[in-house]
Design brief:
Low-confidence stretches: none
Number of helices: 16
Shape: globular
Strand order of the largest sheet: 1-4-5-6-7-8-9-10-11-12-14-16-17-18-19
Radius of gyration: 29 Å
Helix content: 25-40%
Largest sheet: 15 strands, parallel
Strand content: 15-25%
Oligomer: single chain
């Protein structure tokens, strides 16, 4: 056996790529493989049942798919349990009232180290309000969290979040709080997070102004995703030097006001800014937001802007003037731009070229209208050439293109050397198309590695009712591009061979 295979760290990395059956075979193959294989098998568990099943069968059984526990664990059972539980690094628990006896049986370990001492990631799904037996589960969790838990994802009710906040998991570095249908009160969320000063990443629902003050002073907070209610004051004030380590900010709101208040409260040295609006932008508010971004966000550090609007304002046109995006041109180092929802820029070839010139380092461009009234795209196939010419590093593209081909003057594939080999898939959004062969021939010259196309995936209704036909044509384009690209490659190779032969003869 090679000496490298005697190193447990190397075996762990190899075994991470194996499936469950292969791991069980490896565990029985060699003593060297036994421990690393078991560590991977039990590293991420969907519940406690895999650990319980390692105990003697006189202590447990199953009935109708549910575990039946016959009593507390004996000393020898705890030794067996500890031998496997020490391997668990990630655990997902879901509250079922029928499991109360199981949690009660695990409440008296000889030592807290017998209960998952290396647990680092925990997911809890509990939408219950107070119910019989839930206190036993929470008491069990208190024992688990006496160790250094690092990450937690909570899909919980307000009552369950209150119970979790009383467990004192101050070692958490990453926390995700989600509710189901019924939103969690901002004050309850505040109580859950206010003492977690070690957090590096937080995702949660609505937060209060007091919670923002706590978060602003967390010394290590790097990622923040929050919901701001309409009660956020327009003149929001934050402590001195707030959010000093924050680099990724996502704000969800119902109206534009709370987002503007948050941005105005300080200057933000962040890399990525995301904003999701559940009601449509009013035209004035949209203009204020776009003008405010370069004033409050670092022009050098910002790499990503994502603006999403769920539904259009009742008086809003679904296509906005492309020049309203001009304030964003000052972010010269932008790598990712995503504008999606009911509000997108109405670009023509000239407007698209200006965007490309402003952001030459762009890697991801997503302009996706998901709903609202249909507007025929003004960018045509030649506009793609302009985009790829000025953004050579682009590898992800979503854009509506007018691919209605004039049969009398079909687009000729560009003779220039513009050829992007990074793009393998394009979402053509709400793009009309007629002649698939001509479009594929054109695209094969500029995106020769294109293998997949998407189109008409949103709720925008095509006036002519040709959505299914358009989708089929774009699928055909992806297949033809591959063929045309291969033909072009063969032509180039033939030409090169002919030139070499000519040189040799001379």
């Amino acid at each position: 056996m090679h000496q490298c295979l005697r190193l447990e760290e190397i075996l762990q990395e190899i075994f991470k790529n194996a499936d469950y059956r292969s791991l069980t075979v490896l565990a029985r193959t060699s003593r060297l493989f036994y421990e690393p294989a078991l560590n991977v098998i039990y590293s991420d568990l969907p519940g406690l049942q895999p650990l319980i099943e390692r105990l003697p069968h006189d202590w447990w059984s199953t009935s109708s798919g549910e575990l039946v526990i016959r009593g507390p664990l004996r000393p020898q059972d705890w030794d067996t349990f500890a031998g496997y539980s020490r391997r668990v690094r990630s655990l997902r628990l879901r509250w079922f009232e029928s499991d109360a006896k199981l949690y009660r049986a695990l409440l008296s370990p000889p030592d807290p180290s017998f209960l998952l001492p290396n647990l680092r990631t925990f997911t809890w799904h509990c939408l219950s309000t107070r119910s019989a037996g839930l206190d036993d589960m929470i008491a069990f969790m208190r024992l688990l969290f006496s160790h250094n838990l690092v990450e937690a994802q909570l899909i919980v009710s307000e009552y369950a979040l209150t119970a979790f906040s009383n467990l004192g998991c101050t070692s958490l570095r990453k926390l995700v709080i989600q509710s189901h249908k019924v939103a969690i009160n901002a004050n309850v969320t505040e109580d859950a997070i206010c003492k977690l000063s070690a957090l590096r990443s937080l995702t949660c629902g609505e937060v209060s102004v007091r919670a923002l003050h706590h978060l602003a002073q967390f010394p290590l907070l790097n990622r923040l995703t929050i919901w701001l209610g309409d009660d956020i004051p327009s003149a929001l004030t934050l402590p001195r030097f707030p959010f000093s380590k924050l680099r990724y900010l996502t704000i969800n709101t119902k109206s534009i006001g709370p987002c503007l208040s948050m941005l105005k409260a300080t200057n933000w040295n962040i890399r990525c800014f995301h904003h999701r609006l559940d009601a449509g932008y009013d035209p004035a508010g949209r203009e204020v937001l776009l003008e405010l971004l370069p004033l409050q966000l670092s022009r050098e550090s910002l790499k990503c802007i994502s603006l999403h609007t769920v539904s259009a304002h009742q008086n809003d046109d679904p296509i906005i003037n492309p020049f309203s995006l001009k304030p964003l041109f000052s972010f010269k180092n932008l790598l990712i731009l995503e504008l999606s929802g009911a509000i997108i820029p109405g670009l023509d070839n000239d407007g698209l070229q200006k965007l490309a010139v402003a952001w030459p380092q762009l890697r991801v461009l997503i302009l996706l209208q998901k709903s609202g009234q249909y507007r025929a795209p003004q960018v045509d196939l030649s506009g793609l050439v302009l985009l790829l010419e000025h953004c050579p590093g682009l590898h992800q593209l979503t854009l509506s293109v007018n691919a209605i081909v004039d049969t009398k003057a079909p687009p000729a594939p560009p003779i220039s050397s513009i050829s992007n080999k990074l793009i393998t898939s394009i979402n053509f959004s709400n793009s009309p198309i007629t002649k698939t062969a001509e479009v594929a021939a054109f695209l094969s010259a500029i995106v020769p590695n294109l293998r997949e196309t998407l189109s008409w995936t949103g709720e925008v209704m095509c006036p002519g009712g040709n959505v299914q036909e358009y989708r089929k044509r774009w699928d055909n384009v992806a297949e033809l591009v591959r063929v045309f690209a291969e033909v072009r490659k063969q032509e180039r190779e033939t030409c090169m061979h002919a030139l070499k032969s000519e040189v040799v003869r001379k």
